[in-house]
Amino acid sequence: MAKKILIIVLLTAHFGATLWAGPLEKLQKLMEKGDYEKAEKVARKSLEKERVNPGSRYYMSLLFLEERYHLYQVDSAYAYITNALSDLAVATEEAREELMEAGLDSSRFVAQRQQVELAAFARTESEMSIAAFEQYLAKFPEAVKKGRAIFMRDSLAFGQASEQDTWQAYERFFEEYPQSTFVPDARSRYQSLIFKDYTKDDKLGSYIKFLEDHPDTPFRKMAEEIIFERRTILNQWSDYSWFVKTYPASHLRKKAVDMLYYLGAPDSLQRLTSLHPQPDSLRSIASLQDRLLLPFLEGNKFGLMDLKGVTIIPPAYHEISEDYICGGITSDWLQVRADKTTAVVNRLGQVIVSDVEDIKEISAAVRIVYRDGEGFLYHSSGYQISGLTVDDAQELSNGWIAFKHNYEWGLITPGGYLLAKPGYTSIASQGSFILFESDGLFAISDVSEVAQGISSGLSFVYDDYEMIGDSLVQVFREDQESLIGRNLEVLVPLAAHQIYFDGSFWYVKDSEGYYLLDEFHKRKAPIFAEIEVNDGWLALRKPDAWMLLSRLGQESVDLLTGLDSVKLLLQHAAYVQRGDQGQLLFQNGLTRTLGAGDAIRVIGSQARESKASYLLLSQAKKQSVIGASGEVILETQLDEVALLTDSLFRVKKGKKIGLMNTKGKEVLPFKYEVIDEKNGLVFLLQDGKIGCLDLNNGVLLPSEYEMRIQTFGQYYEVKKGGKVGLVNGANKWMLPAEFDQLLKWNDTTCWVRSGTIWSLRTFENEVVLDAIRSVRPWFSVDGQSLAIVVGEDGHGLMTDTRGILLPMQYNDILNLGTEEAPLFFAEQHLKTAAFFVVTYFDLAGEPIRSQAFRPEEYERIYCDQ
Hints:
The protein is an alpha+beta fold. Helices cover 26% and strands 39% of the residues.
């Protein structure tokens, strides 16, 4: 209806004022009357007469756009107005004047074309299909509604793609309509869906392939983070290096190389810096890594310096950790406070973590950072490992981190990949094994299995376990046992038996008896009633007899069978009995036949580290000590024989004790009540007096002293008349027994105390230094021993090679370095000026820094060791 009104308005505007003769006048009147059929005949007749006839074609367009006319046809209307415009462009000047007189200027033609286009758009919009809008845009490329048509077409096409909701559908859309306003949304959905499609199996290779095929994806950061976590699961140098080389522009490149640095990379620092995006920063950190740090106070703020007094971190902090006040700082994480902010900084002073309450070092690579009462896992390179709160953590042997969260343990990689959610009583590792505990039961896994995911694969069936080196684990369940090997191979199935290992072979005891396992841990056929084994022998008993064989592969020892009994004595000796005859059998093939009343026992050294042992054969009229090859070392009537050292026997005859060596020679006569040995000195007690035999140099001191004799350098400290002194190896006095205490110092002097006064004396009893109130041996470094000495004017420092290092004038002397790399803090209190003067000295006694502090400042820097 709106279109009809519009046409009437246009006609009225065109023809309402002036009438003119000819076809145009007729057409105008006929159109006003609504005599459309006659108007069509007039227009067509005019068109037949004149080939170029813009006016008649204009009216034909009006007719075909008139909905009341039975020939209403938008496409025909558009064709006529288009041709009318073409005719107008070539019409004669006379024809143009006639049109103007009829009110038909070019603007009327353009307006009609627009009306046709609007009608065409209304028709297209009513159809609401992509094809209709495509057809409209093709036929009316310059239409006023072109933009709207494009939007509607694109909207319908995007809707279709959205219904399919596949990356292929969105790809087709933005390839077909690249200028569409919906392209950003289509690309966004495309990127999301193609990422999901590529990685729907959630495998590492899929993420890698996705980035290879779509390097410009907006999901690159996410994909790289997943690849980093998955590829570095095993925490191996090669995996971090692979990531950096594969994705050199990644936002994780610095993190990967920083973690390599703490992993203890096999390559040099130069190699690491070639991988690092900030090589100068890494070099700077590395240059400070091994420097021992200690605090200093300047302007009431703390800084850190090295042992040479070089400022490493300028004084900028109001507080530092109390642990740092006494120096010896080796950590690369430093806890400081500036203003009201507590932070962790590195050795360059760069902030690693802010708002920190405390830190706990788990290992060189792992820390717990406490914030707001909660603990969080951090890698030493400064990256937070997990967002989970932790109560405790421990680093496993391969660098994985077992962490405790809400009283349960989980497992995570340094790169942040969660291997096992918290849910276990404990998690431990040894070798390649990972051992999980839950409710008192254990599950055995390994690095490879855990790395592949264990969410449902653990079987908690074992009560306990025992590691056999790093490649085997023995597990227990009630009365059952099993043996599990590398790669979780079950070597011996779980059953009601006992599994034993003896150095080079395994054997099992079950209800049928004992059986051996071969090198593949498979059961060997024979069943034995008993097995006895030591380092040298293997004895096996079938129901009726024993058999014995050497484990040392000695060709001189044949397999013995049909034995009534076997007793394994030593690695080199065993006792066997066949019938009424007993024999000692040695690894060299020698045998000794024993009589019915003979007794044999093992005598060994009391020293824990000694493996020396002998046999004592007791017969009716004599006793014999027999060596490893069956040789008789001693053969006499003895009351008691014991092995004192690997080469000495303590022998008792009657009530007296003497020493004999392994060659049967008497070392000390049988005249002592007590003989024992410690650290190479043999204690000798005779008639209540004490002597000693120094086994290291053969010195024998007679039993005439009152306390156990000790070595004192090249001399011996002895006590006589209640006082101590020194004698030499010839029992001659070096220092008379007139002192209360002796302290070793160097090869020419020693410290002696008489009452409360110490002096330094030569071994000729000449006084080197006197009137010392106390001597406190401290520690040794670079081949020299240090001691704090206190004289009338204060504390000093001495070395046994250079004498007085620091004069005795200080109130206190502390070591703020380590024993391997010392730095001395020496303080003098100037009471008249209410100042404390602190001087830092190096090991050469050279001052490297000196400061004066007021009492309140001194309290802040003083180390209360």
